[in-house]
Task: inverse folding
């Protein structure tokens, strides 16, 4: 990360809202950079004083997050092109951690469902096999 | 703004009445996504499960103060983020933001003091702060809905990268393949709409400094 760290990034850092690799990079930078720590402290005190930021309110209200239903449709490949393009942008470029976690959860559930379905089919197959042979 | 569905409101009500089945249902609904959230950062399954466990305990202990108008999912994720941060602080990966003097630290942990510098001393009630926040939330939701309806996805992406992700105009220009002038125009237009919404509600401009900064 060669770019200077912006206040809005530090604000997101305080909310544990940046992608994990960027969070880790900022943690490393904070260790060795007094100016950056000073900047973080200023942001923290502004937050404590109740100063609002667009990013903070946007994240808190999850103003642009796709619904879980839209994430599900994305996984099934039935989301419209424009919405799907935006969803990918939101997950990959913005790196929304909550939507990433929701998507991962849905993927897991989908694969568990597939696994259970396969297990059930195996069971039906084995229990019906004697009848099939005859 | 994402709000709770009727099902979730009912679920919370049943949990408040100590209904164990409702509590089990809430855990089943949310544990997977919370675990994925924690694990993406901690990278350790056992620690992540501990964080999720602490999140659910934190939810129960804070339940008497939970405002059911607030999104249940956002609330659970905010507790989870707090527990995650706490773990990272204990591991020394994250700075402890406290009011204490760093020199007082006995355990070698690195601290950032805060509270004295740069803080605006605008004293106002919690109710007032909520009113301010809701006014901006509403303006934001309206704007995002309008962009989506009109298919103006680039404007939405631009605002999101600038304000949520914290990128500078140049970086956004490169990411979206738009000129820096276009980015500046979108930004100006967006801020003007937000400012207008704040003025209409007769709210203090002082608590939204970002809206009144000189353009960059």
Result:
């Amino acid at each position: 990360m060669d770019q200077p760290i912006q206040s809005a990034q530090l604000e997101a850092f305080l909310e544990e809202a940046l992608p994990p690799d960027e969070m880790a990079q900022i943690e490393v930078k904070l260790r060795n950079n007094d100016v950056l720590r000073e900047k973080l402290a200023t942001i923290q005190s502004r937050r404590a004083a109740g100063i609002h930021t667009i990013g903070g309110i946007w994240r808190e209200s999850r103003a642009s997050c796709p619904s879980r239903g839209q994430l599900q449709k994305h996984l099934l490949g039935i989301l419209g092109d424009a919405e799907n393009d935006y969803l990918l942008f939101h997950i990959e470029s913005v790196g929304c951690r909550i939507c990433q976690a929701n998507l991962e959860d849905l993927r897991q559930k989908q694969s568990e469902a597939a696994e259970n379905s396969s297990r059930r089919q195996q069971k039906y197959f084995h229990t019906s096999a004697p009848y099939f042979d005859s | 703004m994402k709000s709770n569905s009727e099902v979730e409101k009912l679920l919370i009500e049943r949990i408040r009445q100590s209904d164990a089945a409702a509590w089990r249902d809430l855990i089943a609904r949310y544990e997977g996504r919370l675990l994925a959230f924690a694990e993406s950062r901690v990278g350790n399954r056992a620690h992540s499960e501990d964080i999720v466990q602490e999140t659910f305990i934190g939810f129960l202990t804070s339940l008497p103060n939970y405002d059911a108008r607030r999104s249940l999912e956002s609330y659970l994720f905010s507790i989870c983020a707090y527990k995650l941060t706490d773990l990272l602080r204990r591991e020394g990966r994250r700075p402890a933001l406290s009011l204490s003097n760093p020199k007082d630290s006995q355990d070698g942990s690195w601290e950032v003091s805060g509270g004295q510098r740069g803080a605006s001393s605008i004293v106002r009630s919690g109710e007032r702060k909520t009113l301010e926040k809701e006014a901006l939330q509403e303006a934001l939701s309206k704007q995002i809905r309008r962009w989506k309806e009109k298919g103006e996805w680039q404007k939405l992406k631009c605002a999101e990268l600038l304000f949520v992700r914290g990128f500078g105009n140049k970086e956004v220009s490169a990411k979206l393949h738009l000129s820096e002038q276009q980015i500046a125009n979108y930004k100006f237009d967006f801020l003007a709409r937000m400012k207008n919404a704040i003025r209409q509600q007769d709210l203090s401009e002082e608590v939204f400094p970002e809206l009144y900064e000189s353009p960059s």
